[in-house]
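Notebook entry, cofactor series.
This is the third protein in the set we're modelling with a bound small molecule. For this one the ligand is pyridoxal-5'-phosphate. I'm keeping the input format identical across the series so the outputs can be compared line by line later. Sequence and SMILES below, as received.
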Amino acid sequence: MPAVDLRSDTVTKPSPAMREAMARADVGDDVYGEDPTVNRLQSRVAELLGKAAALFVPSGVMANQIALAVQTRPGDEVLISRGAHCMWYESGAGPALAGVQFRELGGDDGLYTARDLAAMINPDNSHYPVSALCAVENSHNRGGGRIFPQRSIDEIAEVARKHGLKLHLDGARLWNVHVATATPLAALCAPFDTISVCLSKGLGAPVGSLVAGDAETIARAHRRRKMLGGGMRQAGILAAAGLYALEHQLQRLAEDHANARGFAERIARSPGITVGPVDTNIVIWDLAPEVPLDAATFVKRARDRGLLLNAMGERRVRAVTHLDVSAAEVARGAELALEVLKSA
Ligand SMILES: *Cc1c(COP(=O)(O)O)cnc(C)c1O
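Returned structure with ligand:
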């Protein structure tokens, strides 16, 4: 039996229908702005997110790093949710490439409040770095796929505006928030100056992300993409996968959310673990002190039984549901996780 792969929603493979759409794509040289499929994807995503423009880039890391760089100056400070991808999982690109330093705010669930932000904004005094930008990750990966309450975002935006900070949304999994809350994407994005979204997570495209914002910001993003080596040529083949995913694989994220909830409910009945709240397609759990396994050993034993997971810390494990695992496979995955616990 093939392994149940719950490591990440990035492990999905393009379906025959998606490959068909890729093969049929009209293409041109996108560095000259002449790829009709890339142009169509950029317009479509800008429209969905309610922004003037969007730029197709190879990865979510590049989308985030472009957004940071075009809205800050070297030496500036970026205030960011605890455990944020921009800071934890981008190889130090923020400090190395944009020259910014990060300060984390809020709780381990990746949420923070307007009050947390207000307390961290530096006074206008030459001793301090300029607090130039604050960032929200929605849903929040290390927070276990948590959804950032929109009311809280509105309050954060008000404080940010008052102090002249720009606002960036790392929306790699914003699609999940949209589907889980039935909130229009444009409403989720309205408070933000820039937004990054991934096509290669839950949407199931093989490659690609976009960064969206106003026309002037995206014009600068275009130059920055070039600088980072992210200019692609006949990228319409990739953009076609994104357009296909938006059309056919967006609303089905609800199934991933239901599967994640089912998985969490099943394993939560076992002693020895504490399962975090499940807002979207991510389940995290902590191994209790009496369980004689750390997360890395748990993940290894699960692998031996045919369940693939990721460790998220010393005693924290993560499972992510996606397009390529059915409800039945996720249910089998939960049983395998329970076997690992029982045999410990
Ligand atoms: C995956 C992810 C990204 C981008 O990752 P890439 O692998 O570069 O596409 C950015 N932010 C979050 C929250 C993510 O989960």
